[in-house]
Amino acid sequence: MMKETFSLCGTWTLEEASGQQNIPALVPGSVLSDLLNTGIIEDPFWRENEYETLRLFDRDYRYTRTFTVPPSLLARENIDLVFYGLDTLADVSLNGTYILYANNMHRTWRVNVKPYLLPAQNTISILFHSPNRFIEEAAQNNPDVTYDGTGTMRGTSFLRKAHCMFGWDWGPQLPDAGIWRPCELEGYDFLRIRTIAINQYHDNGSVSLQIKAITEGATAAAMRVSVCGPEGNVTEKQGNTDTMSLSIDHPRLWQPNGWGQQPLYTVTVSCLDDEGNILDSCQRRIGLRTIHISREQDEYGEEFCLKVNGRKMFAMGADYIPEDNILSRTSPERTYQLLADCAKSNFNTVRVWGGGYYPEDWFFDQCDELGLIVWLDLMYACNVYKLTEEFEQNIVAETRDNLERIRHHACIGLLCGNNEMETAWTDWPAVANHSKALQADYIKQFEYVLRKECASYAPQIDYWPSSPSSGGCFDDPNSYDRGDVHYWDVWHGLKPFSDYQQQFPRFCSEFGFESFPSLKTVKSYTLPEDRNVFSRVMESHQKCVGGNGKILYYISQNYQYPLTFEHLLYASQLLQAEAMRAGVEHWRRYRGRCMGAIYWQLNDCWPVASWASIDSSGRWKQLQYAARKFFAPQIISCERNDFSVRVNVANDTLSTLTGKATLRLIDAQGQTISTRDVKLSVPALTAQWIFQEDFSVLEKAFHAEDNMAYVMTLYDDQGQTLSENCELFSPPKFFRFCKPNIRLAVRQQGNDCKITVSSDVFAWGVWLETQEIDSVFSDNGFFLLPGETKTIIAHQIQKDVLLAELAVTSVADIGR
After folding, report:
1. pLDDT tens track for 361-371
2. What's this model's pTM, rounded to 2 decimal places?
């Protein structure tokens, strides 16, 4: 009596609507993936192929397939055709009968097709209309909406499709189309469980679960709920109601990464008939925890922080965008690697940006397992939306579909209405010059309609109207006294990295700095003659207006002129890492006043110069290695003003840190000028200033700041190194670096290689790289002192291969 499904995934036929092409297609998939798989088009990421590929979506495309329904399914009382993702404008016909018009990529579409199915062969046809034509016509028909974001096509706000598929200031214009998520027939007799709602109530160490089954069809005679704990212990309850409460004895709480483990409980809900037979069942995996936005008043205004299990957490992470413009190339394995890299780099938070799409179930499953709290934007970004009745009905259904799918996940900490639209209405002239009616539509959409839907379908997840925001109603949305901010004066405003020390937001959810990807990634989209950052091809893979020039400007402020293309790439990544380090370390020093540092951005969707710390090939840039250090649970850093330094230790663990800090002033060769040890005891979840010193007198004795650096090492009370840091007293371009002789000794250690690195003099920005193959190192982008060694693990590589591939660079190589 349980429901029965029949998958319609697999091989279909794709043709242009004009009938000019007829090729095999894979579902789930897309027009681009099918044209690529059959060799009809070249890689759209290669050189400037993007522009020719874009024109393919001036056309319509049709997917068709035939199938025979199993007799057992055909005998069911109800048979639904279910599409979990149609991208985007689709007319669906079954056996010649028109059954559905879909116009939202973000929705699940369900149609009762029992009357139209045949016992023999059935034919399904889906006509996808041109997204390019649609948005062009929508823009022409709505002249009162004039705003277009950087790099985007006109009219995107009128189509519920991932906005960044039409271009962004880091992404190409490759709209694509197709059946992008699975589809199936689902048959049932009496009822089906559409979804279940699970609310949890914590009180003095106990947890009560309130579980409700939302069904369609007949009414069940009874409902049975079982909860299987992480150790396999089962709690079960049955009753003749659709809502049931169940207590969990000795609950194990789910903790964010860095605070503890992530135990998960499996909840199974079954609807029963009069004889106890299961009519339908539904299963969800949950974590027991509380997460809320704390907005308490304090001496600085109103705080904004995530409060997890009653404790205030400093959020550390990055902003996530779609992983590939061709969505079918994403996979659980690819996503897991990206998210595992986040956890490995001490992230506790990932913000899902609102210009893409709601991630797959596996994304949230993996964040549950890794302890990564998800700040989830709803899918609206940098646009002006006209809230017609049809549009409102569409987005309400979209919100319900996605919240019912994902609301149970332990990882979801916050729902946010949109990206940058509130601040756009107050601070961006190109948006603010729109009509008051459209401004009123904004308030209704994000502060009434979507807030109400989130409260209805996910009542235990806090809603925030926009990012940045101070709480809504256009009330100083980028305020530093409350709410979250986006800070872009470093990069867009060309301000120096030192400007971060003047910024005191309550929570920074966007700030960033661009770099070029590695040479291996650059080679994937260029010919040798393209490898100049101002070539046409390199600039076509840079979507931020003037972006390459800004990188060169910042290089001129910090480094000597790179004489090779490879050194230019290296310098750009070192710049990016130093920029983000400056911001994060500053805000962690002021923990309590600031409670979040989420940098832009984690990943790329294609090979490009961008703000990402992991490029489209999954390769770590220097920023990702730096993040592993500046997001470490316990770090040491300093605030420098001229020759005065104040040293700080941030402790974002649940235990008091006792140990010591060793503080050394060194010269350019790495020789110690002065040293001291400072004993410390830093309480849990605090940052503490531990020492202050002025070196003005020593500076005169040791011949200017170009010859001085400050080295800080943090030890626990067992003598283990927890954190190392180094601050130069002058820009690197002026520092008197000696050319280091960096020695590498390699030894095989199982499937990994152990690299012992040493230098005869002070070396800064030491970067290990393999020339052709890929390997992630346990550390990279570090500094070395003479007489000391550093041990690095190169994962999953053989010694002979590594020795043939390994190269080392330091900042002293730039300009030489």
Report:
1. 999 999 999 99
2. 0.97
